[in-house]
Amino acid sequence: MTVFAMDAIPRISRAQVFDALSSMANIAGYKASIEAANHFGRFFTGQITAAGKVPPAKVLVVGGGVAGLAAVGCCKNMGAIVRAFDTREAVREQVESFGAEFLTVHVEESGEGVRDGTVCPAVQRDRHLDHHRAHPWKESSVANHEANGRVDETRFGHR
């Protein structure tokens, strides 16, 4: 019997069939979107009823990696107004191809060469505080948090 660790396979184009990290991140982004919609309290889509008009939800997706793009696609399909940001400028085109708005983040480091643009916790905390001051319009957010190689899809919030 031959056995190999799926998470130890290099993340190159020839080995995409075996890429367990990307497939699990895709599921994590989708699940985070569904969980955020469940906790939101109303439909993500806008509605016009006899009682009046309900605007669509405004969702912010933090991170434009595999999980972030899955979340953008899922929220967009549910009818929400989606905005996303990432430290890597190269992600802009991918986010915009889903029909979401890309928010530019002004940081010193580019996130290039680091898996999913991961930065130190102090910088993440400062960015989080700056983000909430700068984007009061946000009603729901979906964030992909990765620690020690594990993707935590359950961390999201709404106002």
Automatic annotation (TrEMBL):
<feature type="region of interest" description="Disordered">
    <location>
        <begin position="132"/>
        <end position="159"/>
    </location>
</feature>
<feature type="domain" description="Alanine dehydrogenase/pyridine nucleotide transhydrogenase NAD(H)-binding">
    <location>
        <begin position="37"/>
        <end position="157"/>
    </location>
</feature>
<dbReference type="GO" id="GO:0005743">
    <property type="term" value="C:mitochondrial inner membrane"/>
</dbReference>
<dbReference type="InterPro" id="IPR007698">
    <property type="entry name" value="AlaDH/PNT_NAD(H)-bd"/>
</dbReference>
<dbReference type="GO" id="GO:0008750">
    <property type="term" value="F:proton-translocating NAD(P)+ transhydrogenase activity"/>
</dbReference>
<dbReference type="GO" id="GO:0006740">
    <property type="term" value="P:NADPH regeneration"/>
</dbReference>
<protein>
    <recommendedName>
        <fullName>proton-translocating NAD(P)(+) transhydrogenase</fullName>
        <ecNumber>7.1.1.1</ecNumber>
    </recommendedName>
</protein>
<dbReference type="GO" id="GO:0050661">
    <property type="term" value="F:NADP binding"/>
</dbReference>
<keyword id="KW-0520">NAD</keyword>
<dbReference type="Pfam" id="PF01262">
    <property type="entry name" value="AlaDh_PNT_C"/>
</dbReference>
<feature type="compositionally biased region" description="Basic and acidic residues">
    <location>
        <begin position="147"/>
        <end position="159"/>
    </location>
</feature>
<keyword id="KW-1278">Translocase</keyword>
<dbReference type="InterPro" id="IPR036291">
    <property type="entry name" value="NAD(P)-bd_dom_sf"/>
</dbReference>
<keyword id="KW-0521">NADP</keyword>
